[in-house]
Design a protein that fits this description.
By secondary structure, this protein is mainly α. Helices cover 70% and strands 0% of the residues. It has one domain. The longest helix has 41 residues. The mean pLDDT is 90.
Length: 109
């Protein structure tokens, strides 16, 4: 396989930058598509990158870490929203009219 040159690794770094944007916008379906495309692209790269690829690969690694952090932030926000919904539901149930207990055995014969 021929040396793809540093521009291929710049493409890889830009892919992670794009993923960070998509995660920040909660466009997770597009993130999955982008990841599949990136995996296919990575498969075309040599197992050992050239030294000239180092800056782009470092940027890609940094962007990947930022993506992980953004996903954790999104997860935390969703968990907080869920907790709020559960609290509101519990409060609403407290305002519901009391229900009459039903007899399990018929008392008339």
């Amino acid at each position: 396989m021929s040396d793809p040159g540093p521009e291929a690794y710049e493409t890889l770094a830009r892919s992670f930058e794009r993923e960070l944007e998509l995660v920040g916008q909660h466009r997770f379906d597009e993130v999955a598509t982008l990841q599949a495309e990136r995996d296919a692209f990575i498969a075309t790269l040599p197992a050992t990158p050239p030294a000239s690829a180092r800056p782009a690969l470092q940027r890609a690694a940094l962007m990947n870490k930022r993506v992980e952090i953004e996903i954790l932030r999104c997860r935390e926000a969703l968990l907080l929203d869920l907790a709020h919904v559960e609290l509101v539901a519990r409060v609403a149930r407290g305002y519901a009219p009391a229900r009459e207990p039903r007899a399990h055995v018929q008392t008339t014969a």
